[in-house]
Amino acid sequence: MMNYPNKKSTYNKKPIDYGNRGMTLEEDINISNRYYLENDIAIIYKKPTPIKVVNVEYNKRVNTKIKEAYYEIPSTTDYNGIYKGKYIDFDAKETKSKTSFSLNNIHKHQLEHLIRVKNHGGISFLIIRFSTINETYLLTTNDIEYFINNNDRKSIPIDYIRKYGYIINSNYYPRLEYIKIIDMIINEY
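Request: output the structure for the sequence above.
Response:
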């Protein structure tokens, strides 16, 4: 701690906010999606979580508060939209592991949804960030499905993701250039 002549301390006594850990990947995707929309490249939105409001408190018109709500149905994936006439659907996942991505991070209904989208001609995938080593990958539903069907492991090793996934470059704007990877995927079909 250092005190300046005006007696103000440089020591930060504010508690650490742990509430938004893991949000950086979503923030990066949201910034990228804004860039893609503003430049008329793609239309991709974050899907809201479906909730059912049960109890609302109306103190004043400005101070209306939701007092009680619950999740109506399990949410499918985080993002969807359209790019070059193709439906895009994906989920964003972050892990602190340096060696693998746990399959427990993908809910059964999310995987089923991604497979349905793929089977109907859409492009579906996960964007996975290994936050500890600062690597972000796009892994297609085909590669996720192949791994699950041919392995007994409960996690996808990073070596598999590095081999079959696509590394996503980080920039200033767009933050994550995942559209360039979608171009490669479209050209493969």
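The chain has one domain: 24-47+74-188.
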